Amino acid sequence: MAIKVIMPKQGQSVETCIITKWYKKKGDRISIGDILFSYETDKAAFDLESPEEGVLLDIFFEEGAEVPVLVDVAVLGNAGEVIDQHLSSKTGTNEASTAFTASKASTPPNASEALKDTDAGSKTRISPRAKRLAKSKGININNIKGSGPNGRIITRDIENQVSDDLYIQDNIQKTAEYTEKPLTNVRKLIAKAMHSSLQNSAQLTHHMSADVRSLLEARQKIKRNLVADKSQQDITLNDMVCSCVIRALLKFPEANSHFLDDHINTYNKVHLGLAVDTTRGLMVPSVRNSDEMDLTKLSKELKSIAESCKKGSINPELIQSTSATFTVSNLGNYGVEMFTPVINLPQVAILGVCTIINRPADIGNNTFGFIPYMGLSLTYDHRAIDGGPATLFLKEIKDQIEAFRY
User: Fold this and answer.
1) Are residues 356 and 274 part of one domain?
2) CA-CA 20 to 30 A from 294: which of 2, 71, 95, 372?
3) Band of pLDDT at residue 328, cut at 50, 70 and 90
4) Phi and psi for 281 in degrees, rounded to 5?
């Protein structure tokens, strides 16, 4: 029985998605969970895993195609199975799989509307994204042969033309000074968000260090427990820091807020955001109601959202800047000693967690030794929080870390 694969709807505002890469080709044997293709929305990038097993009987959109959500993208079935043109009579159905039979066709009827993009004043078929790219690069589309469905010009064709032009120019000049690479949707979004954050808020960063002997002792205890008990949750230093941040936010709710131009929303619950570095770019998913979780539960949730971001399966609603009330960005693993994190607006603050450095300190009785300190960098929006309360909040995080017990 043949099963259709549809383009998911990632969020209420998303109307189209762009297929960036196919990992399988027509005729491949597919298992449940195999990644079929990657795609981008205007907010993030994702991977689509196969909901069923079978053979990939047909693919209706190539790489670079801009596809309406809930439209048939491909079809799975048994080897040699004949499929029907009538894959879906209603654009917008959200059924993940539907049986169908009859004769083979190259594209489903509901996909035909997606292929009607033509350049104004000509008969050239071109996707809107490819058209915008061609315009920005000064490319004449009339000289390009499209590789998309029905000869449609897609983004890849424009990028190839740009590469060809650069190659010709390189041969003329003998040496190329640089390589030009178009920005991905995700990179454009990150750039826009970072610029907007710095341009539209009054950001200031305070730095402080916390004695992390208690955290390191707890970490060693957890490692020992992992050897003895495989069911032990592997709680990391970052998990512990996040737990301390949550407790500090409950004492200083003004940092657990959104600044919205003419008013401030201060939240009673902590929805903690975690900056996650992925191959597609930075994502900041949130753990909702994190203040209700114990350390073990919090650790599991933090690992889950980070893994979902890296796989491309994160719920798009969780990576909206409004989903979190406060964000933690940890660069300690990279050896960063101090940095200035950028606020994820409309949040009013973000904590940067830095690497651990041994520093000389008084360990009692006028005796000095080396103590492991973790750098903490708090960036806050001075429009919403004054310097005094911000410093007291950062000190509370420090105190929570130094008093940590597991």
Assistant:
1) yes
2) 372
3) very high
4) 130, 180
Quick one: pLDDT at residue 175?
Answer: 57
Give the structural domain span for 393.
Answer: 197-402
Query: Which neighbouring-strand residues pair with 75?
Result: 4, 58
Beta carbons within 10 angstroms of residue 26's beta carbon: 12
Which tokens belong to 51? 């909901």
pTM equals: 0.63
Q: Do 204 and 339 sit in the same domain of this protein? A: yes
Residue 227 forms part of a structural domain: yes
Q: Are residues 245 and 355 in the same domain?
A: yes
Task: Render pLDDT for 5-61 as a digit per residue (tens, 0 to 9).
Answer: 999 887 666 788 889 889 999 999 999 888 999 888 766 778 888 888 999 999 999
Q: Are residues 253 and 344 in the same domain?
A: yes
As given in the structure block, the two tokens for residue 56 are 């990939």
Number of domains within the chain: 3
Cα gap 125→116, rounded to integer Å:
7
For 381-392, what is the mean pLDDT? 96
Per DSSP, which regions of 214-310 are E strands? 257-259, 264-266, 272-274, 276-278, 281-283, 286-287
Radius of gyration of the chain (CA): 26
CATH number at residue 121: 4.10.320.10
What is the C-alpha separation between 180 and 190, in angstroms, rounded?
19
Query: What does the pLDDT look like over 68-122, one tens digit per residue?
Result: 989 999 999 888 777 765 454 333 333 333 333 222 333 344 444 444 445 544 5
Among residues 25, 12, 23, which one has the least CA distance to residue 46? 23
Residues 256, 204: Cα–Cα separation, whole Å: 17
Q: In this structure, are residues 272 and 288 in contact, taking their beta carbons and an 8 Å threshold?
A: no
